[in-house]
Specification:
Radius of gyration: 23 Å
Helix content: 40-55%
Number of strands: 0
Largest sheet: none
């Protein structure tokens, strides 16, 4: 299961940009294998960070990770020449995923993967009785 689709890429970015980056044979149509490679890259990139804390692939993808998956796919489509904006969005996504992997940020995956807080009270040593 992929986290994003071609349609998600078109919604996140312009059709002109996505087709321009993925049309390797210059026929004016996005190459399906190039798009599939970019989506696969994004999926595996996200999973590589999350597999320590979550079962991957995630059944429910939080909205912010969907945007990051689009950013990662776009970064892959730019090959070796990403723009400053594309590189920056890729880097921000990586930093965020590192924080998730370290446990500093929790994802809203819809699963009840939290444990309730437990506490105990020590037995009282002193009483009100005065000798």
């Amino acid at each position: 299961m992929s986290y994003i689709t071609y349609t998600d890429l078109l919604l996140a970015f312009s059709e002109e940009e996505v087709v321009g980056l993925s049309d390797r044979d210059h026929d004016g149509v996005a190459d399906a294998t190039v798009i599939a490679d970019a989506i696969s890259f994004a999926d595996s990139h996200i999973d590589s960070y999350l597999r320590e804390k979550y079962t991957v692939p995630l059944a429910i993808l939080p909205a912010n990770l969907k945007g990051m998956a689009c950013d990662f796919a776009r970064y892959r489509l730019y090959q070796d020449q990403p723009t400053e904006l594309v590189q920056s969005r890729y880097d921000v996504g990586c930093f965020y995923l590192k924080d998730v992997a370290r446990g500093l940020v929790m994802l809203d995956t819809g699963e009840a993967d939290f444990s309730p807080i437990a506490y105990s009270q020590p037995t009282a040593i002193f009483t009100r009785l005065v000798w």
